[in-house]
Amino acid sequence: MPYITTSDGSEIYYTAQGSGQPVLFSHGWPLSSDAWQVELKVFADAGYQAIAHDRRGHGRSSKTYTGNDMDTYARDLAELVEALDLRDLVVVGHSTGGGEVVRYAAQHGVGRVSKVVTVGAVPPIMVKSDANPDGLPISAFDDIRAGVLNDASQFYQDLTTPFFGADRDGATVSQGARDDFWRQGMLVNLAAAYDCVKAFSETDFTEDLKALDVPILIAHGDDDQIVPIGGAALLSAELVKHGTLKVYPGAPHGIYGDFQKQLDADILAFIAD
User: Fold this and answer.
1) How far apart are CA 74 and CA 165, in angstroms?
2) In what order do the strands lie in the sheet with 3-5?
3) Which of the ends of the chain has fewer CB neighbours closer than 10 A, N or C?
4) From 95, 208, 220, 236, active-site residue
């Protein structure tokens, strides 16, 4: 299996399929590159080199105790891009991965990144404060940490309900999709999963968004129960220079079903434009 070794000795797993302009996908918490299996095929079939990696601590990458923070995630991504010498690169990030690609593009990707796509992404900042009254209270993230620490397996199973909007009338998510979320979650080592909660909830991406000087597609479901759109995409769209906001009515946080099909078509159109 392909790996790179980062400057701090961590091994980062990645997969690459197809050839052409590179499109790199960054997954959400607590998942892995397996979350992008459909996109890897769809984008490779469309004539792109589709690449996805497992964030440190996740999937097949090193089970790290340290470095589980957004600066290190972005640095790991930069080292992967440099190792593969990717140029004219499109980066696509879901949820936590959206924060990762925004920070990477702003702080490391100048001259390499041509476009950015975020989906249900955590920027500009999730946690509520006086400066961010639309955020979620810190107690919400404390509850996530407690759930992971006390019984991660059951917590990940329960999380699939709001993640995919399975509690909504007319929800069509399969048990298989929910089981696969649990399977991927169980590959994360506990320290990395726990620390990543702080990374995705308390990192402030405001200056990264302002610094981006390439087109960015900001995609978000308006029924996202994990990263509510009001404190995320709607604010991010106001901060970027070259942004396109795409709202998906009724779509949840998880990329699945009709939402996934339309999203992939929209990303392909955005890249080709």
Assistant:
1) 29
2) 3-5, 11-17, 49-53, 22-26, 89-94, 113-119, 216-221, 243-248
3) N
4) 95
Task: Strands of 27-160 (E only): list them.
Answer: 49-53, 89-94, 113-119
Task: Judge whether 224 counts as a catalytic residue.
Answer: yes
* Tokens found for residue 84: 């593969």
C-beta atoms surrounding 8 within 10 Å: 14
User: Given its phi and psi angles, is residue 205 left (phi above 0), alpha (psi -120 to 50 degrees) or beta?
Assistant: alpha
Asked whether the predicted pLDDT for residue 1 surpasses 70, the reply is no
- Phi, psi at residue 228, to the nearest 5°? -55, 135
Of 217, 208, 270, 272, give the one whose Cα is nearest residue 244: 217
pLDDT in tens, 113-172: 999 999 999 999 999 999 999 899 999 999 999 999 999 999 999 999 999 999 999 999
What's the CA gap between 36 and 237, in Å, rounded? 24
Domain boundaries 3-272, corresponding CATH code: 3.40.50.1820
Provide the whole-model pTM: 0.98
Select which of 54, 76, 208, 224 is catalytic.
224
